[in-house]
Amino acid sequence: MKPDENDWIDRVLKGDPAAYENLVKRYQARLVAFLWNLLGSGDDARDAAQDIFIQAYTRLGQFDRSRGFKSWLFAIAYHFGIDLLRRKRRFRRFWQREAASADPVQVPAGPIEESPIWQPALRKVTPQERSALALKYNEGWESAEIAMALGCTESTVRVHLLNARRKLKRELAAAGFSTGLNKPNPEEVS
Amino acid sequence: MNCAWFEVLCRIPLAGLRLRLCRLHINSCPRCQHESESDEVIPPILVTSDRLAPGLDLWPGVKQGIDGLQMPAPGVGAVLLPTRSARRWAYAAAGIMLLLGAGFWALLRDGQSGQQPVPTVHRPAEQTRLCSARIGNQPARVFQVQSRNPDRTIFWIAKNDKRS
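YS: structure for the whole thing
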């Protein structure tokens, strides 16, 4: 963890909430990008990021410094995002059921459809796989760090990454894009 | 070349089994391991922080949210978020405990229903009382055992073991 982050956390714990602004400003863009990839909507990502910063503030007293603030914050964000997607799915299912038995109702759009930036290929990738991809390629994390944030084992992270890469490759190739996911040379592997 | 085994495993319908087998395979297959950890850049379909609007500022909203909150108190150690697998284990443990409890209760009930209630007999205490006993001219310990037969009283007489 960066030394200035330690100071900011100490100041917050001593009763100076303004010091928290530094932490928010440092991680807000990366957190919103991560949540955008996970949730598929920019608006949802911004709202969720705000809630996550508030949640992290209330739990700051329990934060384990050996783990690193970034890793801890993204772990909270991942669990928050997965819960949010689950709630949205339940909500959507409820409205679909209601719509089947009543007058036509406007079914709230899913998170993926809301985002113009979202590529159809990513619809095929599960939220867990999207999170692993975002942490690996946007944040440059190692499998062990991703596993800690996602609350799973390293080999599960590898499965998520491999699955996601394969799905993206297949979908993008079908859509006529050059994937850039070159096949590994088996000779290099050994 | 893609590893054909992984493709086959990915088609297993049961999610838990699929993940377990994929994990086992990936741990033993260097080709899949290499592919999963590859640093090859994926197409720019992920949202990155530099794609966000430059005016992004969450602090006013966060400040408003934390203004009314109590200051976070320093805790002892870290409280980890319960992981999915931990939750699964907790549910499984709760289920097992419930089954054991139900089984124990059923056994207890069966045992009780098979037994005849022991009639309570009111007899003078002198009739069944053994004040003292001796074994080999030494005072012995006397235990009175409740018999199912109300007309019978069992006494267990043991050597008085001085070691205890």
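YS: worth flagging: Chain A has two domains: 1-113, 119-178.
IM: good catch. Also The domain at 119-178 of chain A is CATH 1.10.10.10 (Arc Repressor Mutant, subunit A).
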